[in-house]
Amino acid sequence: MEAFQLLSRGGARFHKQRFKSDVQLFTHAVTKPEKSVNAPVNQDSTLPPELDFFKYAQGGRAKRKAGNTDPSSSSAPSRPDVRSKRRKTNHETEDFDGNEDDGDDAPEGDALRERVRVTAKGSNVPPPIEVFDDLLDRFKIPHRLMSNLMDNHYKYPTGRRDLAAISPTGTGKTLSYLFPIMSLLGAPISSLKGTEGSGVRAILLAPTRELAHQIYNECLKLAVRRKWRVVLYSKATASTLRDKNARDKVDIVISTPLRLVASIQEGNLDLNNVRHLVLDEADRLLDSEFLAQVQEVISACTHPEIQKAVFSATLPAGAEQLAMGILRNPIRIVVGLKDTPLPLISQTVTYVADDASKLPSLLTYFAQPYNPPLLIFTSTQPRATSLAEELTLNGIANVDCLHAGMTKKERDDAVSRMRRGESWVMVSTEVMARGMDFKGVREVINYDFPTSVQSYIHRIGRTGRAGRDGKAVTYFTDEDAPYLKSIANVLLQSGSSVPDWILKLPKPSKLKKKQMGKIKRAETVNAARKIGRNDAIKKR
Ligand SMILES: Nc1ncnc2c1ncn2[C@@H]1O[C@H](COP(=O)(O)OP(=O)(O)OP(=O)(O)O)[C@@H](O)[C@H]1O
C-alpha cells in the first residue's frame, strides 16, 4: 500500500553540518537499533495485488510524464528495486560526512510518486519510502508500536510537517496519521515523568460520532502492550476529565468538534499541550456547520510546536483555502487524482423517471441474486426509515437503518450489527457517507441522488475499500437530470463509462450546483402505504 508509505515520511532534508547532532542520532539509529522488534518486519516488498489501488487505472486518465508509458511501470516494485533502494538508504546514512545532501534521492522519489500516482507540493518535501525497514532506519519507531502494527496485519508503512493529504476513500488515511502520531508521542504520558508537559498531547477530530468511534477502535489496536490513555470524548468521558489529575494522564482524545468545544468553554479542558491535531474529513469539518467550532479548538491548541494535518478524499477549493490558512508551511499530498474515486469501484447511473418509480426499481433489483452487505443512501431521515420498512415488508431479509435521528444506543447497535455481518442491507443518510469502514460492503445504491459531487464520492467510497472491488449504482429522476453532468464527470475521471447523451448535457451553473442538494422529496418512499408500519417494525 504505497499510498500509505508515501504519506509517511516526515522531516526535511538535513543540512548535515548545521544539524550535526541530529545526524549523529540518525547514524546511531542505523548502526545500533534500539531493540529488535518481536514481530517480523516486512520482508516481502511486493505490494499485494489487492492493495494495488490503481491496478485498473493503468490505462486511465491520470496525467503521466512522457517516457513512462509502460503500463508495467505502475505495478508493484520488484524485489531487486527495493533492495537497491535499501542499499541506497544505508549508504546515505553511512555517508554522513559533513557534505550537504544534494537531494540525491529526489529523482528516485519522483519516479516512485509518479508510478503510484501521488503528487506532492510544498518546500523540502521529503522523499517517499517503500518498506517498513526504511522507516526503522530513519526513525526510532518504538518497538512495541511496530509489533502492534504487525499484529494487525498492516504490513506496509504509512514524520513532522503540517500536512494536507488528499487520498481516495478506503486507502487507509486513518493509519497514515495514527501511526506517525503514536510514534512521535513515543510513550504514554504516564511513563514520561513530566518531560512532555502535562495534558492531552493529540486531538483527532471527526464530523460524526460513528467515525470518531471507529478511529478510536483503530487507535486502540496500536495502543496494546502499553498504557496509552486514549479517550473517545463523550458526555461521560468529558465529565471524568473535569478532574485535572485524570486529564493529565490522557494521551490522545478523539472527538467531534461540538463536544470538545463545550468542555473548552466550560474551562474543563485545556489543550495547551497538544502537539498533534488532525482534522479527519477536513472539508466537512471546515464547512459552515463546523467551522466556528473547529476554529475554537484550533485556537485552544497553543503549543508552539503543534503539528496540524488535514485529511480527506475530497478537498474542494474553498475548503483547501481554509485549510491552507490553518496549516504552517504544509506539504500537500494528493494520491491519485483529486476528488476522484478509485477505479476499483465500478459506477453506473440508472434512469428511474420519478420518485415513485424508485421503489419498484429497487424491488426488481432485489428480485435478482445480489451480493450483501449493501448500503443504500436516501436524502432524509424519514425516507431512510420508510425505505427500510418498505424493504422489510417486501420480504427482504436483514434490513437495517441508521440515521442521526436515532438514539445513540440505536445508532451504536446498528453499527455493531453491520460490523458483525448481521445486516445485509443498510439504509442510511449522509451520516454514514463519510469515513465509515465496513470492509465487506460490495455495493452502494444511491436511492436518492447525492447532495453534491463530494457527497457522491464519499457515499460510493463505502465500497471498494482496502483494495477490494465495489459497485455503485445511482438512481436519477427527471428532477435530478440537471445535476447529472457533475456526477458523470466523476465517473469519467475514474474510468467508468458514461453514455454519450449524458456527456452532451450542459454543465450546471454554480447556482444550479448549489441547488443539487435541495430537491424536495416526499417524506415516505411509498405514498400508497398507509398501514403496515408497525408490522414492518415488528418484523425488523
Ligand atoms: N497498511 C495497511 N494494510 C492493509 N490494510 C490497511 C492498511 N492501512 C489501512 N488498511 C485498511 O484499509 C481500510 C480503509 O482504511 P481507512 O478507513 O483508514 O480509509 P480512509 O482512506 O480513511 O477512507 P475514507 O476516506 O473513506 O475515510 C481499513 O479497513 C483499514 O484497516
UniProtKB/TrEMBL annotation:
Residues 94-108 have a biased composition (Acidic residues). Transmembrane segments: none annotated. Pfam families: DEAD, Helicase_C. One of its GO terms (biological process) is maturation of SSU-rRNA. Residues 358-506 form the Helicase C-terminal domain. Residues 70-79 have a biased composition (Low complexity). The keyword Acyltransferase does not apply. Residues 31-50, 55-109 are annotated as: Disordered. InterPro entries: DDX52/Rok1_DEADc (IPR044764), DEAD/DEAH_box_helicase_dom (IPR011545), DEAD_box_RNA_helicase (IPR050079), Helicase_ATP-bd (IPR014001), Helicase_C-like (IPR001650), P-loop_NTPase (IPR027417), RNA-helicase_DEAD-box_CS (IPR000629). Residues 154-333 form the Helicase ATP-binding domain. One of its GO terms (cellular component) is cytosol. Its EC number is 3.6.4.13. This is RNA helicase. The keyword ATP-binding applies. Belongs to the DEAD box helicase family. DDX52/ROK1 subfamily.
